[in-house]
UniProtKB/TrEMBL annotation:
It holds the Pfam family DEDD_Tnp_IS110. Residues 4-163 form the Transposase IS110-like N-terminal domain. Residues 275-358 form the Transposase IS116/IS110/IS902 C-terminal domain. The lineage of its organism: Bacteria, Bacillati, Actinomycetota, Actinomycetes, Kitasatosporales. InterPro entries: Transp_IS110-like_N, Transpos_IS110, Transposase_20. This is IS110 family transposase.
Length: 408
């Protein structure tokens, strides 16, 4: 068996190869790309001998994606993606100085897959369809998060020089394209006060708003109210920032809509989509996000508990002496946690069993987030069972252990 520590950078990889006893066989700095992978295979062949199987090559690396990782998996190597924080803590065995080097990280990674391999998680063997869903689902969610940040910047800018716009476009929401078009057309209080009804109605018509005449009249009246102002040069500078943010938001709206179509297309093409969509409270976007983060490797989660632990919905126990504390998990996959919270919240309105379970937790004086997290934890277990048995969600089966029987 060969143990390889791979400390990757943007343009190269520092690797160390050890045997099963921890003896250092080789160390090298390999270029990124095909040439680097070829040189790594040469090192493996040189030090492994003719009888070495691909599965006997174990690689520790601080990432689980990218062409390099996929090339290692395709070669048949066993690849372990290790959290950088785990590597940092592991290195404290050698010294507490906090010293760092690429060669030192490669050595620590090789040691970790040699000593603690049973405690590490191998890179999941997700299908190509699942990887495609993950790419578009993450990109879509990241753009939505970035749009929220840009909106907050826009809102803060308007509060500083043109707060009347916040009131005028409140019914449209500032992230909508029609409100942003009006801001671009009239980014200053003086210009906005001169907008005519037809000028305001035009973007509302393109956005297919209802009651356009009434909305246009309300917006015009709000923009023409008296308000405190700033000197003209300052107002002009603020207006330039507002237009920049507004144009960014319009572009983001377009790309989010484009990516949403891609997310749905890739998700619906996956064989597990029907099972995910049978779950209460899961639509195509939420289902795609959950599938993307869980993956579809059937061997990745040995049990429902393992899936719950990865999801971060199951509690953790801290026990020491007479102290015994049960707390929520905060070190978790935030993308998955966000999707599962959305799933659990929506399930309260579509699943009687989920609603009863939530009400039961609340009756025990559990807080809103705690009760919702417990509903999500239960739904993750149900999803695991459905995926394992290849069956669709069944309301009666899912909540059979939590149904209270009332005497006649």
């Amino acid at each position: 068996m060969l143990l390889i520590g791979d400390d990757w950078a943007e343009d190269h990889h520092d690797v160390e190869i050890q045997d099963e006893t921890g003896r250092k066989l080789a160390a090298a700095k390999l270029p990124e790309g095909v040439a680097g992978v070829a040189k790594l295979h040469e090192l493996v062949a040189r030090h492994g001998g003719d009888g070495l199987e691909a599965a006997d090559v174990v690689v520790g690396i601080e990432t689980d994606r990218g062409p390099w990782v996929q090339a290692l998996i395709a070669a048949g190597y066993r690849v372990y993606a290790i959290n950088p924080r785990q590597v940092a803590r592991f290195k404290e065995r050698y010294a507490s100085s906090g010293a760092k080097s690429d060669k030192g990280d490669a050595h620590a990674l090789a040691d970790m897959v040699r000593i603690d391999r049973d405690q590490l998680r191998p890179v999941a063997g997700d299908s190509e369809q699942a990887q495609a869903v993950k790419v578009v689902a993450r990109a879509h969610q990241s753009l939505i998060w970035e749009r929220t940040r840009t909106f907050q910047r826009l809102r803060n800018t308007l509060r500083e020089y043109f707060p009347a716009a916040l009131n005028a476009y409140a019914d449209l929401t500032l992230t909508s394209t029609d409100a942003l078009e009006l801001l671009i057309k009239a980014p200053t209080p003086a210009a906005a006060a001169k907008l005519t009804r037809p000028q305001i109605t035009a973007p509302l018509t393109r956005a297919r708003r209802h009651n356009r005449a009434q909305k246009a009249a309300t917006i015009q009246a709000a923009l023409r109210e008296e308000h405190l102002g700033l000197p003209e040069p300052v107002t002009t500078a603020y207006a330039a920032a507002t237009v920049a943010h507004a144009k960014l938001l319009i572009a983001m709206n377009e790309q989010i809509a484009e990516l949403e179509g891609q997310v749905k297309e890739h998700f619906l093409a996956h064989p597990d989509a029907e099972i995910y969509l049978s779950m209460p409270g899961i639509g195509e976007i939420t289902g795609a996000r959950v599938l993307a983060e869980f993956g579809d490797d059937p061997t990745r989660y040995a049990s429902a508990k393992a899936r719950k632990n990865y999801a971060g919905t199951s509690p953790i126990t801290r026990a020491s002496g007479k102290s015994h504390v049960v707390a929520a998990r905060f070190v978790r996959n935030n993308r998955l946690a966000d999707a599962l919270q959305t799933h659990a919240f929506s399930a309260l309105n579509t699943s009687p069993g989920a609603r009863r379970y939530y009400d039961k937790q609340r009756a025990r004086e559990a807080g809103y987030n705690s009760a919702l997290r417990q509903v999500g934890n239960r739904l993750v277990g149900v999803l695991h069972g459905c995926l394992k048995t290849r069956t669709l969600y069944n309301e009666a089966t899912a909540w059979s252990h939590h149904t209270q029987s009332h005497p006649a």
